[in-house]
Amino acid sequence: VQLQASGGGLVQAGGSLRLSCVVSGRTISQYTVAWFRQAPQKEREFAAAIRKGGFTYYADSVTGRFVISRDNAKNTVYLEMNSLKPEDTAVYYCATGNPILSATRDSSIYSYWGQGTQVTVSS
Fold first, then answer.
1. How far apart are CA 51 and CA 13, in angstroms?
2. Which residues fall within 8 angstroms of residue 45, CB to CB, at 6 or more apart?
3. pLDDT value of residue 75
4. What is the per-residue pLDDT across 22-73, written as a single tens digit (0 to 9) for each?
5. Which backbone phi and psi does 55 adopt, to 5 degrees?
6. Which of 22, 40, 70, 109 lies in disulfide reach of 4, CB 3.0 to 4.6 Å?
7. What 8-state DSSP symbol labels residue 67?
8. CA distance 54 to 108
9. What's the pLDDT score for residue 64?
10. If you write DSSP's letter for every residue of 3-67 in order, what string do you get?
11. Which residue, among 96, 103, 93, 79, has the nearest Cα to 28 in the 3D structure?
12. Half-sphere exposure of 2 toward its Cβ, with a 13 Å CA cutoff?
């Protein structure tokens, strides 16, 4: 299983970016795919996830601003990020696994990870 994340970049506060995560070796509609992020000198944290049934979950810090979606035909998961803030600056990673519902936000449950894409939001 391989994941390829892309779409990061430099954007001004208030702007938008769309991240993509192309998954190979696994059918994304049968698993959970999540986005995590890690800011400098901080722990990796959960951002959003889309589960097998299509249900979506978000961290409180991104709710209302980020939208996770998937294209089953392309086996790709997207993270649309709007109203970006400087505190959203981080390396964003996509990951896939099969966590139980209560563990959706737990990074240790996910078996496969992409390489990360840098998002920088300037003030």
1. 29
2. 36, 37, 38, 59
3. 98
4. 999 999 999 999 999 999 999 999 999 999 999 999 999 999 999 999 999 9
5. -70, 140
6. 22
7. E
8. 21
9. 98
10. EEEE--EEEETT--EEEEEEEESS-GGGSEEEEEEE-TTS--EEEEEE-TTS-EEE-TTTTTTEE
11. 96
12. 2
The pLDDT of residue 43 is: 97
Taking the C-alpha atoms of residue 50 and residue 69, their distance in angstroms, rounded to an integer, is 7
Residue type, 100: I
Element (H, E) at 94: strand 90-97
CB 91 within 8 A of CB 37: yes
Residue 50 bridge partners (DSSP): 33, 56
Strand segments, DSSP code E, in 32-82 are 32-38, 45-50, 56-58, 66-71, 76-81
92: its two tokens: 């964003």
Query: Which tokens hold the place of 77?
Result: 């998961």
Whether residue 45 contacts residue 35, with contact meaning beta carbons closer than 8 Å, is answered with no
Q: Which two tokens stand for residue 52?
A: 């097998």
- 115, amino acid identity: Q
